[in-house]
Amino acid sequence: MAIHTILKMGDPRLLRAVRPVAEFNTEALRGLVVDMHDTMRAAHGAGLAAPQIGVDLQVVVFGSEVTNPRYPGRPLVPATVLINPVITPLGSEEELDWEGCLSVPGLRGRVPRWTRIRYTGFDLAGLPVDRTVEGFHARVVQHECDHLAGILYPMRMRDFTQFGFTEVLFPGMESNQDD
Ligand code: NI
């Protein structure tokens, strides 16, 4: 088990489009996923992408079996390892909601995302993942997969009047000082 330092916005490694995983079920890949889970949980993240710990592979983890203290009141997203993901929007409907990012600590912004998506990819063993989801689950997946293309959520924002410090926007909500 290893908790890694999470890279912060400004680090050029967060702006790279990273490469697909070529070989599944290897010791190295299993170790990466364990470290990503440990790092995500330690930071109370809703998700984490490999580039956030400096690894240039298309691997994201997200979700949990318990409510996330950084996103109280949001529906549970099943704990998922998603490798080489592809997102297809279903319909043209978008919704705006608040997001944070462990690489952009202390801030929140309202970000437009597709309401409904299908996402495909592979799990750790190389078995296919294929889900159709909406709302918060769809938002988390879009946020994490954007990291694989070198996109951070502020780059998706259209209205910077809805961008600010978490402690100012939501006084009393945050117990986690990391974000
Ligand atoms: Ni993020």
Describe this structure in words.
By secondary structure, this protein is an alpha+beta fold. The protein has one domain: Alpha-Beta Complex (Peptide Deformylase), CATH 3.90.45.10. 19% of the residues lie in helices and 27% in strands. The protein has helices spanning 27-42, 135-148, 166-169; strands spanning 47-49, 59-62, 80-89, 94-99, 107-114, 116-122, 128-134, 163-165. It has a 5-stranded antiparallel sheet, with helices on both faces. The longest helix is centred in the N-terminal third of the chain and has 16 residues, at 27-42. The radius of gyration is 15 Å and the shape is globular. Nickel (II) ion (NI) is lined by residues 101-103, 143, 147.
List keywords for this structure.
19% helix, 179 residues, five-stranded antiparallel β-sheet, Peptide Deformylase, binds nickel (II) ion, disordered C terminus, 27% strand, alpha+beta
